Amino acid sequence: MADLHMPLDVTRRELFFLMLGSLLQAVSGQIRYSVPEELPKGSFVGNIAKDLAMDLKQLSHGGIQLITEGRRQYFDLDFQNGHLCIHERVDREAICGRLLTCMLKLEILIQEQVKVYIAEIEIEDINDNAPTFKVEAVQLKILENTATGSRFLLPDAQDPDLEKNSLQTYQLSPNGHFTLDVQTAANGGKYVELILDRTLDREEAAFHDLILIATDGGNPVKSGTAHIRVVVEDVNDNAPVFSQSVYKVTAMENIPIDSLLLTVNATDVDEGINAEIMYTFRQASEKALNIFHLDPKTGEVRVKQNLDFEENTMYEMEIQARDGRGISGRANILVTVIDVNDNAPEIAVTSLTNAVSEDSPQGTAVALLRVADRDSGDNGKVWCSSSEKLPFRLEKTFDNYYSLVTDRYLDREIISAYNVTVIATDKGTPPLSTTTIIPLKILDKNDNPPTFQEKSYMSFITENTPPGTSVFTLKANDPDWEENSKITYSIIPDQVKYAPFSSYLSINSETGAIYALRSFDYEEFQEIHFLVKAQDGGSPPLSSNVTMILLILDQNDNSPQILYPSLPSDGSTGVELAPRSSEPGYLVTKVVAVDADSGQNGWLSYQLLKATEPGLFTIGLHTGEIRTARFLLDKDALKQSLVVLVKDNGQPPLSASVTVTVVLADSIPESLSDISSISAPADPESDLTFYLVVAVAFVSCLFFTFLLVLLALRLRKWRTSQLCESGSIHFNGVPVSQFVGIDGVRAFLQSYCHEVSLTSGSRKSQVLFLTNTLRAQQDSNKSEPFFPAEDSNMNQEGQAVGQVSLTLSYY
């Protein structure tokens, strides 16, 4: 099958025909085909190529175009063989409705020849629709006394097909009361009427279900149906009838008031108001009318007063049933009264103990009862019983007397009160009984000690809490009653850090609330264990103990303590050395601090608050290590003062600060020339400065003396020896850093070793004295400096050359 070509839209087709309007002079020809509706897609309609005498090669090049009216394309052209085929299912009733002739036009455009052919395709009707009713179910209401021959119009059926394929006739399902009459209207349409042939009886059949069938004349024949329900309406032609002519019933003389004796029932085969029945007494004695009540709607006969066998043994009454139209029926009622045991036994409590102790022995008498019955014979014989599963039982003493005694041991904590039910029953038929309830209260005995819900309790308190703070509240339970359950609380005496426990905690004897009598110090102790005693008010009293654990929570109440560098106390300056040749990251010194608090309150951080040259030094946030941040410059001051802040992580945080002095030097002579600019701390109690000045003066004098002697020896040999080349001054400094433990804290230690070469032309004697101070919180150690020296030599130019190695170690 060739590909299907959809029609061009309206706009493109109009433009196309406007362009070809001058070329197309007339329609070249007309073709007509006839096909039935509802053919499947692809069905053959006609051979366009043969009918128009066209060459199939011309078709294969797409030289032909189909143009259809409307938006839907029902036909398609096969370019392989020139056949016109069904493209979409054709429904004649949807296209043409009730028109007798249904014609579709198709324009065939031959583009090369510029010719247009008209193809008319007639759609033939087939029997593809069955007759249908607009209403599938119809209800007719007809009185049962309607005369025969009456007519009732029924709904029509519709069939969209034409002629013989449309509606032809109606039929009615077989029945014994109705027939059909089919009529033809002036316009040719058919309508149908229902005719009543036989009289209806609603009591015989209240409904008649009929099937109306509409058929057409197609091949095969199709039909549609409608359900006709005939409802027979009632006419009052029947009287009420009782189910029995005589109703017999027996009643015990002790039947309760308003009890149902019997229910009379009359039926009326009519319906509606014709079947609405009212019941009434027709003939009855005045006594019977006072004792019995007849419900006019339901027919229930009930007792209004007590029956008494000794007064009357039988009652006879006549009743009637009347429908809504006044027709009535009648029946009789016979009521026989039966004598019964209508006197119940009586119970009298002659002696009663309202309360009994829970420690009473088994068999203790609680109450004395007497029973009696006014009846005689078996109806007057009585036997007694008590409630089961209770710790009590009845014992018959003599004649009609019974004793209520304990059957087992009592426990007030399980059940504090009982309601003992005593039942007295006679031997009548049926037996009657009387019930009485004896209330008993169980008196308490102190047989339960106080108990705590937990074996131990734990509470928390923050250190430095003010005295009088509530720590915890203990609660003990005692299932006993009143004084036996009244609990007092106390703390069992103990020692805490060699101090009386009563100076730390107290407890409210009534509520069990524990209070702190003083502030606690977490650094002193972290928890307290003690026992709390709960004692009831019984006699003798009972008690129990529970362990209480009080945990002290740390608070940030201790500032950081700086261990190194410590504040000078002996006149030392606390000076650190940083050679000018140091590279960035050079470790100058380390600040060491501790905090007595714990947890995050003891976490320390270090911060550089102030510096002579900002940006020259950095400090580790958590290590406290002071390092150079860049290369040292000539313009940087010899003396650098650094203020270091040590802060903990508490809330609020606490802090401490220390000042660190760092000396920058490239050579010892240079540092000695400026050493006087370094001021010592103004501490009147420290002698370190004094000792340093004396040491420097002594070393200087010794050094100058050595130089003079060396110079004299060299001058003596100068005339006979060749002058030596003058030496150069050099300075090498190598810092060595290490950590030393002090009371568990790693402190920083730094020692320096320098080698010095001096010329005879120097006018100044320079010695660099470097100190590092390391102290614990209450101790400091010092060692004297020492100066090892090497031999001196003279050069050829008369200059004295001396090399001195100066090593200073200080701990």
Automatic annotation (TrEMBL):
Domain Cadherin residues, every copy: 27-133, 134-242, 243-347, 348-452, 453-562, 579-683
Swiss-Prot/TrEMBL keywords: Calcium, Cell adhesion, Glycoprotein, Membrane, Repeat, Signal, Transmembrane, Transmembrane helix
InterPro entries: Cadherin-like_dom (IPR002126), Cadherin-like_sf (IPR015919), Cadherin_C (IPR032455), Cadherin_CS (IPR020894), Cadherin_N (IPR013164), Protocadherin/Cadherin-CA (IPR050174)
Keyword Metal-binding attributed: no
Annotated localization: Membrane
Signal peptide positions on this chain: 1-29
One Pfam family recorded for the sequence: Cadherin_2
Superkingdom field: Eukaryota
Keyword presence, Hydrolase: no
Gene3D superfamilies attached to this UniProt entry: Cadherins
Membrane topology listed for this record: Single-pass membrane protein
Protein name: Protocadherin gamma-A12-like
Chief place of localization: membrane
Species this protein is from: Gekko japonicus (Schlegel's Japanese gecko)
Ranges that cross the membrane: 688-713
